[in-house]
Give the backbone structure.
Amino acid sequence: MNNSIKLLFLLVLLQIFITGCSKTDDDELNTAIVSADSTAAASVPVISEVTAAASPTSVNTPNYIFSSSEAGTITYGGSCSSSTTSAAVDNNKITFNVLADGIYSNCTISVTDSASNTSNILSVSSFTVDATAPTLSEVKEVSTSTSDDTSSYTFSSTEAGTITYGGSCTSSTTSASAANNTITFNALADGTYSNCTIIVTDSVGNSSNFLTITSFTVAIQSTIEEVTAILTPNNDSTPNYTFSSTEAGTITYGGSCSSSDTTVISGNNTITLNALADGTYSNCTITVTNTEGEAGDPITITSFVVDSAMETGTINGSVLGDYTNSSLSGVSVSYANSGITMGNIITDSSGDFSQTLILGTYTLTYNMSGYLDVIQSATLETDNQTLVVSTLRMLSDTCSSGTISGTIKDAVSNNSVTGVSLNVRSGVNVTSGTILKTDVTSNTGTYSLSSMSAG
């Protein structure tokens, strides 16, 4: 009996123990499941911008890259959308659907994971789309025939940008605005211009249509200038006159002068006037009309006097260069009488010159670029005299200063002459004018003039 009771008591305790253990295991399992579910529910995707959309861009389907800490479904907001709707863990590259030109500053992205947790809202950095090229049109064409070699032209553009020129026209203006634009072409030679074009490229690289500039013709008026005036007074009833022209063409004479010379070249032109009676001529003019028919402004020939009874003579000479015996052509030789310039002539290819002048004493001034100016004195004393002046040697303008020294001796005894006063002037055969240096010979007849300029 006692054993039976003990056995029954042990069975009851065992049942209680098993039941207790089983309950404890179920509670722990339920707790673990709840904890795992709570952790999953609390994990929210985090997204951030990696690479913003290019701005400005000419692509109307720009790319954008963002990162996400979880996979999920993408939701777009604002003015942007995309066919890409799934995000992966890590970086995600999306391409926005076609966008119209404009500024996009309200686009957003969010990601929702499989547990319906939605990320932070990512604001896409503002960007600008410009996929439209500028449109150009002509506003004011160049005059069909113009004498302006730097003609103006006006065109309109729908956008600002950089101008590219094509064909034979160029300009220093390289920027266009979104409005009317007036440009000035660089200097153009005479001729017809029918191949000139303009393109404008905006800031994102969109190039406009080719704008073909309406054909125009440049016909520059001739510019003429006096080179050598007619000697005055003179006894030549058919004097020569030299002028320069910027263009070839034909000559029209005005006033009291005329000539059988009616054609002109580009450069210097020497004409011979038809026979003139004695008198003063102050109204003679020359006009040059170029080959395009454009007449330039007339030039008035400097007033001159013809007096057939006047006595004259001729001065001839030659010019050499530096220390060589080479003839120097192109030297300007002017003749002044009592300070008044009476004529001017240019040495020929042999370095020679010849000028007919009224009688008198003249100061000849020789001038040429790269050489020092030289003056020379010459006097015409009798009618029809021909005076050949000493051959002149011109020195380079790079010559430096130096010293002139020497000894003066008696021509008969050859003894040194003391106390001779020396006055030095610049030029050849010059006996008047500015004295540059003075000296007196020593007791041995010597003299020295230091720091003398080349000449």
In short: The radius of gyration is 51 Å. The first strand starts at residue 47 and ends at 51. The domain at 228-308 is CATH 2.60.40 (Immunoglobulin-like).
